[in-house]
Sequence to fold (55 residues):
Amino acid sequence: MTKKNRTPSTTPPHDHGALAPASWRRLVSVELLAGAVRHIGALLAGFAVSWWQRD
Fold:
């Protein structure tokens, strides 16, 4: 029994230009989310320190 070529000939070629905007948007959204998380973390740390030092 011979092996068949398992690569389908009907697969369209990958368009790398179409993938660039999606990855760019993902990168920007991840950076914005990371910045927001850092900001919220800094606020929570500030509240914790001020609560710890209250007299």
